[in-house]
Amino acid sequence: MKASSFLKSSVIALAFLCLSPLAKAQPGDTGPDPDPNGGGAPLDLGISVFIAAGIGYAAKKKYDARKKEKIADSTEK
């Protein structure tokens, strides 16, 4: 790695580390929580993404198994 590219990446990393405490996405403490059960976070999208990923993973595994079986059958002949 060249010294100049190492220096550039080090400066960028240092800038991110120094400026990250200033970037706050949520406001500070706003007082007591009106819902004692913690409120409801929507789980629709997260669960849907995990289900879709699981279906995609299963389909890929099945496709690979069929492809491997087809190759094995063709080499036996």
Could you please describe the fold and organization of this structure?
With 77 residues, the chain is mostly helical. It contains 2 helices and no strands. The protein has helices at 3-19, 44-76. The mean pLDDT is 80.
Secondary structure: elements and pairs:
Layout: H1 3-19, H2 44-76
Write a short abstract of this structure.
Helix content is 65%, strand content 0%. The protein is built from two helices and no strands. It has helices spanning 3-19, 44-76.
What descriptive keywords fit this protein?
flat
Instruction: Tell me the overall shape.
Output: flat
Estimate what percentage of residues fall within beta strands: under 5%
The total of beta strands comes to 0
- Poorly predicted runs of 5 or more residues: none
Tell me the series of helices and strands, N- to C-terminal.
HH
Radius of gyration: 26 Å
What's the helical proportion of residues?
55-70%
End-to-end separation in angstroms reads 52 Å
Tally of helical runs: 2
Helices and strands: which structural class?
A: mainly alpha
Question: Would you tell me the overall average pLDDT?
Answer: 80
- Sheet having the most strands: none
